[in-house]
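Hi everyone,

Forwarding the result from last night's run.
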Amino acid sequence: MSTSDKFMQPAIPSFDGHYDFWFMTMENFLRSKELWQLVEDGIPVFGATATEAQRKSVAEANLKDLKVKNYLFQSIDREILETILDKNTSQAIWQSMQKKYQGSTRVKRAQLQALRHEFELLSMKEREKVDTYLGRTLSIVNKMKSNGEKVDSSTVVSKILRSLTAKFNYVVCSIEESNDLSALSIDELHGSLLVHEQRMQSLQPDEQVLKITHDDRFGTSRGRGHSHGNSRGRGREAKDELLLVTYEETTQSVQEEDWFLDSGCSNHMTGNKLWFTEVKEEGFSRSVKLGNNTTMAVTAKGSIQVQINGTSHVITDVYYVPELKTNLLSLGQL
């Protein structure tokens, strides 16, 4: 078996109507074959006084040009091929395709305007994968660039961070606080989002609400473990006195015994003071900012003893928020 047989030959790019993509891939293909110069410069032309060496170079160029034409014929379907059969050289075929499909300045301007609008409205869909969304985003960005738009990396990074679904809000805060966005590359952002997505997927749906039994000196209460959604939002700590909670008001019936796992909540919090086995009130004063921009007072901090699947656990550093209707467990503290 020859050495060349050990490697797969690169596939010839097929023209499917997307000229810019075909242009880029076909150019790269021809360059890899050392044939691109024929498309750029054409077959050299010498007069009647051409030397033997010049005539030989023309013959070699003609043979190579036939190879380029063969590649182009294979990449273009029959309907389009019939419109360029009168073109004698690969350069003429290429220029004809360019005039037909690259578009005039006015057409490109209109396309760019539409792409800008599409880019502005772009947002991540619920349950859409990070890979899929970034693929959609970069597809639009590449089309904008091919139409003459200058789009720098920081613009794309900012757009992606602004348009993620709510479950990524705490991730966005973390990225914004720990990175210089003007220097953060798209690949670095992509990798960071993938890591967080994998962590989210590792949590099973029934782990979002814990079934907890409280057994303490004040009595017993049992969590029913409802399956309604957990709260979401962006967890940025503004200052020592202000702690952010991603709690959102809900019209659904929420049992007071339910505890919600919250990836954006800065601290464990509850509105039920009877559950505390140890509590500190004197000199303790905080406030929490909710997802709807309202604030609630934190009047105490302490520990709660709970039973999870028959095992006793003590949860420390739990904030007492009298007005809070939902019990929140901060994933960052677990």
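The longest strand covers residues 311-320.

Cheers,
N.
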